[in-house]
Amino acid sequence: MKDTWYNPNFFSIILKIFFLKINLVVQKTCYIFVPQNKYIMSNTTQRPLYEIAREIRSDWSKQGKGINYGAKPYLDAMASLDSINGNYGMESAKSVVCYFLANAGTWRGETAKRVKAELKKMAGIR
Q1: Burial of 46 by CB count in 10 Å (0-12 exposed, 13-18 middle, 19+ buried)?
Q2: Are 98 and 126 in contact (CB under 8 A)?
Q3: Which residues pair with 87 in a beta bridge?
Q4: Block mean pLDDT (10 aa), the chain, length 126
Q5: What span, in angstroms and rounded, lies between the C-alpha atoms of 4 and 39?
Q6: What is the distance between the alpha carbons of residues 126 and 123, in angstroms, rounded to a whole number?
Q7: DSSP 80-120
Q8: What pLDDT sits at residue 65?
Q9: Cα Rg for the chain, rounded, in angstroms?
Q10: H-helix or E-strand containing 69?
Q11: pLDDT at site 27
């Protein structure tokens, strides 16, 4: 009889369930409905994500705590992105921003509120 825990299919099923749960959480956070043939126009220019990431890193470090281990990889990814329409590897910049916001709960203060609101507006989150 085969050991269930060693079966490669067992691991792939567990990983699929794990990532499905993560995707469901992120999709709930980042759900955006734009009707077909409608374009969202903005007359304001947005700051590049790398500039926002620099401000986040600076402010979070000033608070005396280290950057949250869950938010750090997404902050690093944002540091190499220009706009919300870009990609980081296989991930869209929008998903990177959503993952960062989901993990940045310990970053607090006036700057945090302002920057988080800016990121939510860029990603189209309410």
Answers
A1: middle
A2: no
A3: 92
A4: 56 57 44 44 74 95 90 96 93 95 94 95 90
A5: 51
A6: 9
A7: T--STT-EETTEEHHHHHHHHHHH-TT--SHHHHHHHHHHH
A8: 81
A9: 18
A10: none
A11: 42
Residue 90, amino acid: M
Which pLDDT belongs to residue 19?
Answer: 54
Compute the Cα dihedral for 30, 26, 83, 54 and give only its sign.
Answer: positive
Token pair in block for residue 40 = 């969202």
Q: CA 3, CA 22: separation in Å to the nearest integer? A: 28
* Alpha carbon distance 30, 8 (integer Å): 32
HSE-up of residue 118 (Cα within 13 Å, Cβ side): 18
The residue written with tokens 């620099």 in the block is: 54
* Residue position matching structure tokens 């099923």: 13
Amino acid identity at 35: P
Between vectors from CA 44 to CA 43 and to CA 46, what angle results, nearest 5°? 140
The answer to whether the CB of 75 falls within 8 A of the CB of 56 is: yes
pLDDT the model gives residue 64: 86
Tokens of 13: 């099923």
Go through the chain and tell me how many residues it has: 126
